[in-house]
Every structure is written in C-alpha cells, then in structure tokens.
Amino acid sequence: MKATLSAVAIFIAALLFVSSCSDSPNLNAPNQTIQTDTTCASGTTYPLIAGQHDTVGTLHVSNDATNIYITYTITDPECTEGLNGLHLWVGNDLSLLPGGGCTRPSPGQLCQPAFGGFCADANGAMTYTFTIPFTELGIINVNEVCNLQLYVVAHAEACGETAFGGNVIGPNTCGNAWWFYAAYNVCCDFGPPPTPSCETAFAKGGWVWTTDPKSNPEHLPSLRLTRNRWGWAINLLAPGTYTYDIWAGAGLNKIQNGTLVGTLTIVWNGTSATVTYNITGGCVMEEAHLYAGDPRPTNIAPGQYGNTASFDPPAASHTFTVPLENTNGTDGVWLIAHAVVCCN
Fold it and tell me: Hey, how many other C-beta atoms are within 10 angstroms of the C-beta on 129?
C-alpha cells in the first residue's frame, strides 16, 4: 500500500543540509534512543506495546532505495484479536503531529493526509505492512539523506487494546496520556545487488512431450519425444489471437514447483504468426527460442527450434514474426516457446 504524506514535504529544506551518510542532522527531539541492527539494510525492530505495559508484538522498519517499509506483527499467542485499526505518521519533526508533539496524538487525526499520515484496517491480521515511497516524503535520492532520522508514530488497535510501536517514550508535557514512537535512521548500506537466478522457461501449451506419467500431472496429450524432460507444445487449429502463461523451473511439468514469469501472445492470421514474449515480475530474458511449423515438432532441443534470439543486456520482451501455415489441413500448426529467464 502506498501512502500520501504531503505534510512531511515541509522537511525537504532540511535535506539540503544533509550531504553524506556521515551527516547526522540535529533534530533536537527528546529521548532519542535508537535501536539499530548490525547491518542497517536489515532494518530495525521495535516493541509493539499494548495497554502501556504489555509487549504484544513488533514494529519493523526498513528501507531500500525506493521505499520505507513499516510492518506491524503480533507475536503474543494469546492475542487472538490480531490487528485492526492502524494509524501511522512518518516525518522528521514531531511538532508537526496533532497536538504539537507535546502530548499523545489522536489516532483519528494521526492518519489524516493533512497531517502527513495514513491509516488502514488490518481486519484481524497478525501482520500488516505499509509501503511508503520516499518520493512522497520529499526524498528523491535516498543516497543523499543517509542516516537522516525519521520519526515513526505507529498506533494500532491490537489485542483489544490501544498500542504503540517504538522504543522512545513520547513527551507528555501537555497531558498525561502514554505513547511511544520509533526513531529510525534512513539506511543506504544495501550491500551488493542480488545475483540473478536463471531458469529455463516454457509457454504452457496443451501438449507435453514426456512419456512418463509422473511428468504429466495434468494428463495432457503427449508428443512422446522423451521420458521425463519437462516442457509444453502449443497446437493451434484456427487463426486467431492466443495468450499462454510462461513458467520457469516447472520440473516434471508441475507448475506449483515453478514460477510464473510472464505471458506469450500469438497472433496467427493463417499464413504468418506474430509471437510476443512479455516477461514480468522483475524478470528478464537472456535467450528466446521458438519452434513454429506445420509438422509436429520432433526435437525438444531449444537450439534446434529454428528461431533464436539472444539479449545483452537481458530483455523483458521480444517478438518473432514467422511464416506459419497449415499446409496439410489436418492437425493445425505447432509452436514451442522457450526462454532462459533470470529473476532477482
């Protein structure tokens, strides 16, 4: 869920004074006790306290280069009610809170866009995450605000009580109500980028080529080309537009073991076909191989399909345009769409 935090845009000016990860702005907030992990990219975990004294869960705050993530989690096994109303505010100046930062903020006002906050109903869930784009906090480049301290005021209706997440006691100079907040330093230590995991992928047609029943869990018709190699063929009986899912790593033709990585769209007019791979979910292709012909395929080796493309850098989409005609007039035309797909 993305949040609208228009009010915190007021602190853009403060960012002009933060030029590197070694800078720590003087925010003059009380009780700035900060709980940090050994690697900042792993985030920081704070207690979620209900009824002033009972720790019923955790509040976890982390960020990447794009978003800040705030996760409420119930860990108390006796808390069967879970999380319900959630109210959240993020900023670098507690005086912008309802009440001027000197008393417990009103949850109802806390999540109003006019105050730079937002809210949700978790409907009894045991965990809930808010995803806040840094751009909505007025931060365009997170690497320019390393260690900038943000205050997270996270309220919840949890376990039949009011609850706040954090490890800093909120000031109560204007009243006597208890509350907590979290002081979080923006992280820029993300470590090396993840190594992509690459898998072979096929568009899931209505035919397999295996002869072993254990690799044909859906009991599809088979081309009987191999005993256990997984993959599918597509059989078209009439011109038209068709779309198929592309699955990676679906050994033994079990899609529950694989990953859905995109779609294949075929537009066949009777004499030629336009075949488009669309890879989604942050994955990309290093190679694509396509068989398209009138006779049934007799070879399952992708390099022998007749249409090949390699991508450097890897690509998220590619289109083959190939001649394709049902010359024998019996069993239609056939396609096999293979790709090498890499996902972070």
Answer: 14
275 within 8 A of 322, measured Cβ to Cβ: yes
Q: Residue 256's CB: how many other CB atoms inside 10 A?
A: 6
Q: What is the Cα Rg of the chain in Å?
A: 28
Q: What is the pLDDT of residue 21?
A: 30
Give the residue among 163, 145, 189 at the shortest CA–CA distance from 37.
189
Q: How many C-beta neighbours within 10 Å does residue 89 have?
A: 29
The structure tokens listed for 273 are 């076909």
- The residue extents of the domains of the chain are 6-185, 197-343
Contact present, 56 and 48 (Cβ < 8 Å): yes
Kindly give the pairing relationship between strand 117-125 and strand 83-91. Answer: antiparallel
Instruction: Give Cβ neighbours of residue 293 (< 8 Å, ≥ 6 apart).
Output: 306, 324, 333, 334
- Rounded distance, CA 157 to CA 125, Å? 11
| Among 168, 150, 170, CA closest to 35 | 168
**E strand or H helix that includes residue 15:** helix 12-15
* Residue corresponding to tokens 């808010």: 130
**How far is the C-alpha of 344 from the C-alpha of 324, rounded, in Å?**
35
The residue type at 11:
F
| pLDDT tens for each residue of 276-314 | 999 998 899 999 999 999 999 999 999 999 999 999 999
Q: How far is Cα 100 from Cα 78, in angstroms, rounded to an integer?
A: 36
Confidence of residue 24 (pLDDT cuts 50, 70, 90): very low
CB atoms within 10 A of CB 4: 12
> Max CA-CA distance within the chain?
88
- Residue 128 and residue 84: Cα distance in Å, rounded? 10
State residue 197 phi and psi, 5-degree precision.
-100, 125
Query: Are 33 and 167 spatial neighbours (Cβ–Cβ below 8 Å)?
Result: yes
Q: Do 151 and 92 form a contact (C-beta atoms < 8 A)?
A: yes
Q: Report yes or no: 284 and 342 within 8 Å, Cβ to Cβ.
A: yes
